[in-house]
Design a protein that fits this description.
single chain; mainly alpha; 67% helix
Length: 466
C-alpha cells in the first residue's frame, strides 16, 4: 500500500471549475470576518476572569505570535499552490496522502464544530436582543436538546445556518460582498467601544497584573487562540482568487495584523474598565459599557456582536464547503461533493451538505464541552503546515514561490513550538476526543478513501505521483 503517494502541483487532479473573482481586499475582509467575532465579544471576559487577569494582553500576544508564524507559512503555501483545501492540499504535496487525509479530517472537525458553536452563540445574542423588545421564543425552541430544561432544538441557530447556506449558494462574489458590509459594521462597533471606553480606564484595575501566574497566561493563550482562527479559511478560497501568488499572502497577513492590533487594544481597555474578577460573563464588551453606565453604546455593541458572529459563521462554513470540494475532487470522499453549479460556479452539493450538518449539530447538540476540540484541531493543522514549508524547501526547491516565508527553518520551527506548547495546555478530555476523531477518520480512509483516490486510478498514477 502506497500511503504516502503525493499530488503534483497543477496536475489533472487539481483542475478547477471555480470562478476567479476575489482580490486582496476581498480576502482581507474574509479573514477579518472570520477572526473578529466570538473571540473578541465572548472569550475575552472568560479568559481574563478564569485564567489570565489583566495579563490577558500577554495571552493575546502569545496566541498572536503562534498564529503569525503559522500565517507566514500558510502564505508561502498559498502562493505556491493556489488550490482549495488549505492545510489538506498543502500536506498532500509535502507529506503524502495519508497525512493529507488526517489533516483534512482534522479540518472537518475544526470548521464543522466551530460553525456549530458560533451558530449557538449567535442564537444567544439574537434571543437576548429580541428579549429587549419583549419578544421571546417558546422554551422548547430556545436551546439544544436538554430534557431537564425543557428544550428540544435551538431554532434560531438552525435558521441562521440555513440562511448563511443560502447566501453561500448564490456565488462567492455575492457572499464576499455581503461579508464585507458586515465586517465594516463590526469594526465600527469595536472602534466605538475603544473610543468610549478609553476615557474610563483605571490603571488600578491592572493590579495584580498576573494574578494566576504565567501558567494562567499560557492557559489563557490556549483558550484565546480560538479568537485568531479564521485566517486559514482565507487559503481555502485560493482557486477563486485573481493573481493568487500576490493576493493570498496580502489577505492572510493583513487580516491577522488588523485583528491582533484590535485584540490587544480591546483587552487593555476591557481589563482597565472592569476588575477582571467581574468579567466572567457571556457579553463582556457590552457588560463593560454597562459597568460605566454607557448603556446606549452597550446596545450598539450587542448588535455588533450579532453582526460579527454572523461573518464568522459565513467564512467558517465557506471554508468547510471548499474543504469537502477539494477532498471529494481527490476521490477521498464521494465525488458528488465536488459537483459545481454550471452558472454560479459554486460546489452546490457540498454547500448544502455542510449547511444541513452544521444546522443539525447547532440545533440539537450542546457544544460547550467540545469547544476546545476546535482549538486542538487547528493548532495541529498549523503545526503540520509550518513543518511542510521546511520540508518542501529541502525536497522541492525548484517550485516557484510567489511569497517566501523568511528565516526558514527558524520561523516554521517557532510556529511548531508555539502551537504544540498551546496544545499541551488543553485538557485531557480534549486530547481523548481528538484522538477518537482521528481514529474514526482512519477507518473511513481505509474503507473508502484509499481505493477511491484519484491517485489510485489506472492511467493517473504515474502522472500524479511525484
Amino acid at each position: 500500500m502506497n500511503l504516502f503517494r503525493k499530488k503534483t502541483i497543477g496536475g489533472k487532479n487539481s483542475e478547477s471549475s471555480l470562478k476567479k473573482v476575489l482580490g486582496a481586499m476581498d480576502l482581507t475582509m474574509l479573514g477579518v470576518g472570520a477572526i473578529i467575532g466570538t473571540g473578541i465579544f465572548v472569550l475575552t471576559g472568560v479568559a481574563a476572569a478564569k485564567y489570565a487577569g489583566p495579563a490577558l494582553i500577554l495571552s493575546f500576544i502569545i496566541a498572536g505570535l503562534a498564529c503569525a508564524f503559522a500565517a507566514l507559512c500558510y502564505s508561502e503555501f498559498a502562493s505556491m499552490m493556489p488550490e482549495s483545501g488549505s492545510a489538506y492540499t498543502y500536506s498532500y504535496v509535502a507529506f503524502g496522502e495519508i497525512v493529507a487525509w488526517i489533516l483534512g479530517w482534522d479540518l472537518v472537525l475544526e470548521y464543522g464544530l466551530a460553525s456549530s458553536a458560533v451558530a449557538s452563540g449567535w442564537s444567544g445574542y439574537f434571543q437576548g436582543l429580541l428579549s429587549g423588545f419583549g419578544i421571546h421564543f417558546p422554551t422548547f425552541l430556545t436551546s439544544a436538546f436538554d430534557p431537564a430544561k425543557g428544550t428540544i432544538i435551538d431554532l434560531p441557530a438552525v435558521l441562521i445556518v440555513l440562511l448563511v447556506t443560502f447566501i453561500l449558494s448564490r456565488g462567492v462574489k455575492e457572499s464576499a460582498k455581503f461579508n464585507a458590509i458586515m465586517v465594516i459594521i463590526k469594526i465600527a462597533v469595536v472602534l466605538l467601544f475603544i473610543a468610549v471606553g478609553v476615557w474610563y480606564v483605571k490603571p488600578v484595575n491592572w493590579a495584580p497584573f498576573m494574578p494566576f501566574g504565567f501558567s494562567g497566561v499560557a492557559t489563557g493563550a490556549a483558550v484565546v487562540v480560538f479568537a485568531y482562527f479564521g485566517f486559514d479559511a482565507v487559503s481555502t478560497a485560493a482557486e477563486e482568487v485573481r493573481n493568487p501568488q500576490r493576493n493570498l499572502p496580502i489577505g492572510i497577513i493583513s487580516a491577522l495584523s488588523i485583528c491582533t492590533i484590535l485584540y490587544i487594544i480591546v483587552s487593555l481597555i476591557l481589563t482597565g474598565i472592569v476588575p477582571f474578577q467581574k468579567l466572567g460573563v457571556k457579553d463582556p464588551v457590552a457588560f463593560a459599557l454597562q459597568f460605566i453606565h454607557q448603556d446606549w453604546a452597550a446596545g450598539f455593541i450587542s448588535l455588533g456582536a450579532i453582526v460579527g458572529i454572523t461573518t464568522v459563521l459565513i467564512v467558517m462554513m465557506f471554508g468547510q464547503t471548499r474543504l469537502f470540494y477539494s477532498i471529494s475532487r481527490d476521490g477521498l470522499l464521494p465525488k458528488r461533493l465536488s459537483n459545481v453549479h454550471p452558472k454560479r460556479k459554486v460546489p452546490m452539493t457540498s454547500t448544502w451538505v455542510t449547511g444541513l450538518l452544521v444546522s443539525a449539530f447547532a440545533g440539537l447538540v450542546p457544544l460547550d464541552k467540545l469547544a476546545e476540540l476546535t482549538n486542538i484541531g487547528t493548532l495541529f493543522a498549523f503545526s503540520a503546515v509550518s513543518l511542510g514549508v521546511a520540508v518542501l524547501r529541502k525536497t522541492r526547491p525548484d517550485i516557484k514561490r510567489g511569497f517566501k516565508t523568511p528565516w526558514v527553518p527558524f520561523i516554521p520551527a517557532l510556529a511548531v513550538i508555539f502551537c504544540v506548547y498551546l496544545m499541551f495546555q488543553l485538557q485531557a478530555f480534549t486530547w481523548k476526543g481528538f484522538l477518537i476523531w482521528l481514529a474514526l477518520g482512519l477507518i473511513i480512509y481505509f474503507t473508502y478513501g484509499y481505493r477511491n483516490s484519484r491517485l489510485n486510478e489506472t492511467g493517473q498514477k504515474k502522472e500524479n505521483v511525484v
